[in-house]
Design brief:
alpha/beta; 2-enoyl-CoA Hydratase, Chain A, domain 1; 2 domains; four-stranded parallel sheet; 11 helices; 14 strands; 34% helix
């Protein structure tokens, strides 16, 4: 049986019609995908699947994180509410406002919020900002683990099969696992290495085996094969690279973050030398969120069967 792991992590969204088309691939005709409610004329709209999707019986697991926003939240929220996908990762960003542009003087325009997006069960996707607007904007860059959520009883909703879900800000995963850095949740030291782009700059020292085009100031770059591993010699070279950048190495943190460090070295070298596809393919082998998701297809299949049986009871599948 074919299975799908849909990775929406870091996906900032896009056109509404594309979110509807993607959702429709997994939903039967007539299923509600998203709706808007507002205070101005014509702001209340329902968007439904217009055809029977091609993948109604395919088990689906969706990966999301704090950087998944807007259209990606519409997709993950619709599939979760209709019990068509198991959602894994972090609570999404919570960006789902309908804005209308009004012309003002001198060719300028005013973007005014006129409506909000809701998932099929009625969950509000937009995350509120009760403090300063800066807190809202900085949410995705928070270094701390996502805090335990405090639920408001009025935000309780139910999926088609009766599972509890909550609105009030972002799409909450069925199986949470913090991993804001390529699926990992490193220490402050590991986050510093990532933020300083030391993995990427280190990767510039390498080239593909047999490629003699690139020369560094000290001679030929180190060549690697596509199946290379991050050995001790490469780790030692990375240590020297970190020190040369003026970053003090915390040995305890280095040991704690070793799996993350190895994965990022391998990822960035692959990315620089062999391209995006090989880099992503190798990263998934150690990505904690992806590995968790890959182990949940049995549960996703049960969810698919549950959705199918509920649909038959309702006479729509």
């Amino acid at each position: 049986m074919r299975r799908l792991l849909l990775d929406l992590r870091g996906n900032p969204g896009g056109p509404l019609d594309q979110a509807i088309k993607v959702s429709n691939r997994f939903l039967p005709r007539g299923d509600l995908i998203v709706f808007t409610r507002g205070r101005v004329p014509n702001s209340d709209q329902d968007f439904r699947a217009t055809d029977d999707g091609q993948y109604l019986e395919m088990p689906v697991v969706v990966l999301v994180n704090r950087n998944s926003a807007s259209a990606s939240e519409i997709v993950s929220g619709a599939l979760q509410d209709h019990d068509r996908a198991l959602i894994v990762g972090e609570t999404t960003f919570g960006k789902a406002l309908v804005q209308s542009i009004y012309r003002v003087s001198e060719g300028a325009g005013l973007a005014l919020t006129t409506a909000r997006y809701y998932t099929p069960s009625g969950r509000l996707i937009q995350r509120p900002w009760d403090g300063t607007f800066d807190e809202y904007l900085l949410y995705a860059y928070a270094s701390r683990e996502q805090a335990a959520r405090r639920y408001d009883p009025k935000d309780l909703k139910y999926t088609d099969a009766g599972r509890k879900v909550y609105g009030g800000g972002g799409i909450e995963p069925d199986r949470p696992l913090d991993g804001p850095y390529e699926g990992f949740n490193p220490s402050r030291f590991g986050r510093t290495l990532y933020a300083r782009q030391l993995f990427g700059s280190f990767a510039q020292r390498f080239s593909a085996e047999g490629d003699t085009r690139f020369m560094s100031g000290n001679g030929q770059r180190r060549s690697v094969r596509s199946d290379f591993v991050v050995d001790d010699a490469m780790l030692d070279a990375f240590r020297e690279h970190v020190k040369s950048a003026g970053v003090k190495i915390d040995e305890q943190a280095f040991a704690t973050d070793l799996t993350f460090i190895r994965a990022m070295i391998r990822f960035d070298i692959n990315l620089a030398v062999f391209g995006v596809a090989p880099a992503r393919r190798h990263l998934i082998e150690t990505d904690p969120q992806a590995q968790l998701a890959l182990g949940l297809f049995g549960e996703a299949e049960q969810l698919t069967q549950l959705a199918r049986s509920k649909g038959k009871e309702a006479g729509v599948r």
